[in-house]
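Reading group handout, session on sequence-to-structure problems. Before we discuss, look at one worked example. The prompt was deliberately terse, the way you'd type it at a terminal:

> structure Acetyltransferase

The input record follows.
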Amino acid sequence: MDTNLLTAIINSYCRGFSNWSCYEGIPRYDKALADYFSVTGYQFHLRLDFSANGMDVFIPLRYFSESGYHVFDFPAIERTISNDQITALDAAGLIKIIAAHLQDTYPAINLGTILGKLTAFPCPPQVEEVGIEEFNRLLSVTEIDRQPEPAEWLVNQLLPLIAALGYRQQADETALLSLVYKQYEQVLPNHSLIKDNKLSVRNELLSFMLGEEHVTRPYPNPLHKYFYSQALIQPAGKEAVYSRYFPKEDITVSIRPFDISRDLEMVHDWFNRDHAKKIWKMDWPLRELELYYRCLLPGNWSYSFIGEINGTPTYNFEVYWVVRDILSDYYDALPSDYGTHQFIAPVDPKLKFSSPSTQCMLDWVFAQPEVGKMVGEGSVESLAALMNKAHVGFRVEKVIQLPHKKANLNFCYREWYWAKFPANQHISIHTATSTIKQAHHEALSGI
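And the output record:
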């Protein structure tokens, strides 16, 4: 099978299903993968999680596309989880696994028809060599107004072009997607592509693959990238991004991105403490925890940060983009919603500093202009988490039943936070974020 065709099939599969993630680096606690990746030299892979069937698949990832047209190298590998046996997969072997998953998930589907549809999306190398001029032409008001099905036009024509420009390093995909969003916002303000944050792009992709009668979690609308915070989800570097001195407590709280080589064993110890096991439920073996972070950190929907008190790591929090999280199924999520999970390691009240730690988390998240409101879904079993959130301005919206827990869905806007801590609205955060924002602004201005 032609590698471009196989890449198109994988890209289409990723649009329709959620059992995949990026995987970064060579693991320390997974010898089978470490040995194999050390030989091949690849630092990035797409991981397909078929653990329910006793396996996972790793495909070398050459380019991750924000518009969904990723580029892969081959062969892929299948790893049998029970004995860590690794088998190289050719095109036929990979398609067989994908087909089996489709058949298990939707036994009534016509497998031949579906696999045929999966080949419909080109990968970037197949797109004709075009430049920014063609992008601007396609993005013109006249062209958008002519489209009877704007979502289909976006998926089949504009997104492959954006991916091609990004793949060839001719433009930044996120900047281009932001321009598309602004153009749609101006030309079609009442169109469902803008009104419904689930968006017709999602429905278009799903119906194209499986038909309207099937329900799954397709890849979210790429136009949401207009509301994407790089500072929160893909921070640059591992140095501190924010610090603040609290004179009353005489402490300095700082926040830095999670560093897997520095922090993995530390958070493994934290999560295996008695007070963490019941609520946090991440008391996993090191190998499993490493897999979690190697799939989390290179992705484009969530990131982990470490909070330090006077230079000593004390707490961990994750920021996630709600529209790309399962939580978006439980309320009318907006693409400007960002959620957080927070874990404070010490049990000694004199060392916890819950209020300063949580304030710094909110300072950092609300400093990003893409954020509209913050969202939380703490377990109803954790009274401490509920009280801590209420202390800084969160309000419970309703109780929801997630697959893994019963939770208090709560929201917080800047104004609610500042009403609790009026002085905090005057805090100016000077970090590398300004450089990121400036680069993004220049990318948009130069097109």
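Points for discussion. First: The chain has three domains: 3-117, 127-227, 230-445. Second: Confidence is low (pLDDT under 50) at residues 189-217, 431-447.
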